[in-house]
């Protein structure tokens, strides 16, 4: 075969493979990222020397188009064309924020506008890196280090986002806090207390400098987070038939779904469907799911700490913070590893290797079992091992590491979990014993001269559930105590029992739910679909621990920005543009965009296309066992079928 024909055959094979495995929600390919940046640079924006790419992702196609393209085609008619591939781009140029839609089919900019609202796009790694080095050349900072008899070559500075506190904002800023390594690899445990460096990121210059006091440096001894033991590799010891990865689609057991990756959200699970063992057809469960925002406010109101109220996903990016997963440490030996691609500050595609892994997990228990002893002459035991499929990523955001799991169960459930670990954010103090403390230090003395500050963690999940279709409702199944009446007492000595009273949420105001004050189960149901015996099909939310909500006052500025943390559960009407709980522009936002604002529109949510939002929250009071590295803390929830199947799907 001659070379031109061979090349044509290879091209056609690649095109066929791409078409076979293509999904309209596939992340942008490296070629599409580079094509997008090329088109933007060829526009008038390319004339700006400070052109920087802050967001470059798939402009999500209309949901109806995606579902139409993915729907079965039993008539074998020509399938509809796939949704148009477009990029959503946010750049900074000339001191302004520009939003663009780039049509990748026509290679043209479909729309372009200057954003003039509150808040700024996420920071790039280059910006934060330059900001971290700036204090080291600033004369006043160099003098402060010299006055403390420290070696500036052993100093590391870390820029922190600053939030908003009612002021008129004119620039993008960070505040750098600095640390003294001096041989220690646990940088966060040795803060140089009292110094704050405010930096204008666009001009990359120091605009305010403060050196208010000095505190003894915490000791470098005893703060190494590295294990002294040989890492113990883990194995899932599964004997199942395995899973299949076709492009970005994954098929396993009775599940099929799409997995994506973006700089902002990290892992995104889409178009998840489960096989009905009776009909042998796949039924829709979830259209889209991902972590939408994090909120980590520290509870120290002093000048050096008050601004530490981080919204990491919007201010930097969960996917951009994803780490290269380590085989046999982060993921077991049977894992498959997946790469992600993001756009760098110059708009070129960057490969992030092994940022996701997929593996079968042995829960070392039973997914179901029973022993029956009431059949004469027999003891009958049956059951099945608990084997599931996990999609995992790890994001390291400064001092904390978050392991995010999406776990698919054969019983039709989706278990979503997050593990928190890493190192504490601490401040230096003169105290060496808790008995010496006579003031509020806003945390716990975890080592000599070391206070770990109280703080919260919230991870807000976006869950666009499509339970057997788009038209869904939120049902609150409340457990109510009932007194046995005098009429019934003639046949029973019982005085009470509980029953279930179901309430269907009508509007978004009804979709804001506090949990814990009364026994209730929350279900997303499809009121238009019934089981064979007439029950409404649905999925219910099962939190893994008592939900945590914000304790900050409503008028506190961090709470104004993160008002979505006041309720653990929100249900809103679906809107393609409403995916980020803290608003699209989180940095220095004012709380005038985001989940709490959308919910206040009070749209109808009964028998509509709706989205559930769930906050996995932690109030973290530090303890000495959390130092110098914190043992993993787990949180999460399960979405479990509830009258979705006609019987236990594990029995086939």
From TrEMBL:
**Presence of keyword Iron:** no
- The PTM 2',4',5'-topaquinone maps to 400
Span of the signal peptide: 1-19
Broad EC category: oxidoreductase
| One GO process term, biological-process aspect | response to auxin
The active site lies at 312 (proton acceptor), 400 (schiff-base intermediate with substrate)
Known post-translational modifications? Topaquinone (TPQ) is generated by copper-dependent autoxidation of a specific tyrosyl residue.
The protein's GO terms of the molecular function aspect are:
aliphatic amine oxidase activity; metal ion binding
InterPro entries linked: Cu_Am_ox_TPQ-bd, Cu_amine_oxidase, Cu_amine_oxidase_C, Cu_amine_oxidase_C_sf, Cu_amine_oxidase_N-reg, Cu_amine_oxidase_N2, Cu_amine_oxidase_N3
Name the needed cofactors.
Answer: Cu cation
Q: Which domain of life is it from?
A: Eukaryota
Question: What does the record note on quaternary structure?
Answer: Homodimer.
Q: Which organism is it from?
A: Cardamine amara subsp. amara
Note describing how the cofactor binds: Contains 1 topaquinone per subunit.
For this UniProt record, give its keywords in alphabetical order, as a comma-separated list: Copper, Disulfide bond, Metal-binding, Oxidoreductase, Signal, TPQ
Residues covered by the Copper amine oxidase N2-terminal domain: 23-114
> Which residues belong to any copy of the Copper amine oxidase N3-terminal domain?
121-216
Q: Which Pfam families match?
A: Cu_amine_oxid, Cu_amine_oxidN2, Cu_amine_oxidN3
User: Recorded E.C. number(s)?
Assistant: 1.4.3.-
Q: What is this protein called?
A: Amine oxidase
Family note: Belongs to the copper/topaquinone oxidase family.
In terms of Gene3D superfamilies, this protein maps to:
3.10.450.40, Copper amine oxidase, catalytic domain (2.70.98.20)
Ranges where the Copper amine oxidase catalytic domain occurs: 241-650
PROSITE patterns xrefs: COPPER_AMINE_OXID_1 (PS01164)
């Amino acid at each position: 075969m001659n070379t031109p024909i061979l090349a044509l055959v290879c091209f056609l094979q690649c095109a066929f493979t791409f078409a076979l495995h293509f999904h309209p929600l596939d992340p942008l390919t490296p070629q599409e990222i580079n094509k997008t940046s090329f088109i933007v640079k060829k526009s008038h924006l390319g004339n700006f020397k400070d052109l920087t790419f802050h967001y470059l992702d798939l402009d999500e196609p209309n949901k109806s188009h995606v579902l139409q393209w993915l729907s079965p085609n039993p008539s074998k008619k020509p399938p509809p064309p796939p949704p148009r591939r477009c990029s959503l781009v946010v750049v900074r140029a000339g001191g302004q924020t520009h939003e663009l839609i780039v049509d990748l089919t026509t290679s043209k900019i479909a729309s372009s506008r200057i954003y003039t609202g509150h808040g700024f796009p996420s920071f790039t790694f280059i910006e934060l890196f330059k900001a971290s080095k700036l204090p080291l050349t600033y004369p006043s900072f160099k003098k402060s280090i010299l006055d403390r008899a420290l070696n500036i070559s052993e100093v590391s500075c870390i820029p922190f986002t600053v939030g908003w506190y009612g002021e008129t904002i004119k620039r993008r800023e960070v505040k750098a806090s600095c640390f003294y390594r001096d041989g220690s690899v646990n940088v966060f445990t040795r803060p140089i207390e009292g110094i704050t460096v405010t930096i204008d990121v666009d001009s990359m210059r120091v605009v305010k400098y403060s050196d208010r006091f000095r505190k003894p440096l915490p000791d470098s001894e005893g703060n190494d987070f590295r294990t002294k033991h040989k890492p113990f590799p883990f194995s899932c010891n599964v004997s199942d038939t395995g899973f299949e990865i076709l492009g970005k689609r994954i098929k396993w057991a009775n599940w099929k779904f799409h997995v994506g990756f973006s700089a902002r959200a990290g892992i995104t699970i889409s178009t998840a469907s489960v096989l009905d063992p009776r009909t042998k057809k796949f039924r829709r469960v979830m259209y889209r799911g991902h972590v939408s925002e994090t909120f980590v406010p520290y509870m120290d109101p002093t000048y050096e700490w008050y601004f530490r109220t981080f919204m990491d996903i919007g201010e930097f990016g969960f996917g951009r913070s994803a780490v290269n997963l380590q085989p046999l440490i982060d993921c077991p030996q049977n894992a498959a590893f997946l790469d992600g691609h993001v756009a760098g500050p110059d708009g070129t595609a960057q490969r992030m290797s092994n940022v996701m892994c997929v593996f079968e997990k042995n829960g070392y228990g039973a997914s179901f079992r029973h022993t029956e002893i009431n059949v004469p002459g027999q003891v009958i035991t049956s059951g099945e091992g608990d084997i599931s499929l996990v999609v995992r990523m790890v994001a390291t955001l400064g001092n904390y590491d978050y392991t995010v799991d999406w776990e698919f169960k054969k019983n039709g459930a989706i278990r979503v979990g997050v593990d928190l670990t890493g190192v504490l954010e601490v401040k230096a103090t003169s105290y060496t014993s808790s008995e010496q403390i006579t003031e509020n230090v806003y945390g716990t003395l975890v080592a000599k001269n070391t206070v770990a500050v109280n703080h919260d963690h919230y991870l807000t999940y976006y869950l666009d559930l499509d339970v057997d279709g788009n038209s869904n409702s939120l049902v609150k199944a409340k457990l109510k105590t009932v007194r046995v009446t005098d009429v019934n007492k003639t046949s029973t000595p019982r005085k009470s029992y509980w029953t279930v009273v179901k309430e269907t949420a009508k509007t978004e105001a009804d979709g804001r739910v506090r949990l814990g004050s009364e026994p209730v189960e929350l279900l997303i149901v499809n009121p238009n679909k019934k089981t064979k015996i007439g029950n409404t099909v649905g999925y219910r939310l099962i939190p893994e621990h008592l939900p945590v909500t914000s304790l900050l006052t409503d008028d506190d500025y961090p709470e104004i920005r993160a008002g979505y943390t006041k309720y653990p559960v929100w249900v809103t009407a679906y809107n393609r543009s409403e995916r980020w709980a803290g608003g699209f522009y989180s940095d220095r936002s004012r709380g005038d965009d985001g989940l709490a604002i959308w919910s206040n529109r009070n749209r109808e949510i009964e028998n509509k296309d709706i989205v559930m939002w769930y906050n996995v929250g932690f109030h973290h009071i530090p303890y000495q066992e959390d130092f110098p590295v914190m043992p993993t803390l787990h949180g999460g929830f399960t979405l479990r079928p509830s009258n979705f199947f006609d019987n236990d799907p594990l029995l086939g």
